[in-house]
Design goal:
- The chain is α+β, with helices and mostly antiparallel strands.
- The chain is built from four helices and five strands.
- Strands 2-3-4 form a three-stranded antiparallel sheet, with no helix packed on it. A two-stranded parallel ribbon has the order 1-5.
- A hairpin with a 6-residue loop joins β2 and β3.
- α2 packs antiparallel against α3.
- This is DC-UbP/UBTD2 N-terminal domain-containing protein.
Length: about 110
């Protein structure tokens, strides 16, 4: 008789991640402003709870290609609630919410001159 949980592999059942659907910032934003917003988010995010290692893994995943991002979240034990990574949990049940602006660029990004 086999163990009931033997077919459950780490990362199995995790949603396959994808980039967020196209979105628009409240006002047109430059790449420099977007980078600044992202840096501010990642600098303050760990203060809202959760584990620093998970925040670090999420940042690397958010800035990586999708296939690499998938491997990062799977190996870090991140439980992906929404496919675009906007809501994730760690194995202890702590919630991690990521704004779309750290995951993709808005449709109204002002091109650099």
């Amino acid at each position: 008789m086999g163990c009931a949980g033997s077919s459950f592999a780490k990362g199995e059942g995790n949603k396959k991640i994808r980039k967020p659907k196209p979105w628009k910032h409240s006002e047109p934003i430059t790449r420099a402003q977007l980078v600044q917003k992202r840096d501010e988010f990642w600098d303050t995010a760990p203060h809202y709870g959760g584990q620093k290692e998970i925040w670090d893994a999420l940042r690397v995943a958010a800035e990586a290609e999708l296939s690499l991002a998938q491997a990062i979240v799977d190996s870090a034990g991140v439980i992906v609630q929404s496919e675009d990574l906007t809501i994730c949990y760690d194995e202890r049940g702590a919630k991690y919410e990521l704004p779309k602006y750290v995951l993709s660029e808005p449709t109204n990004l002002i091109p650099d001159n």
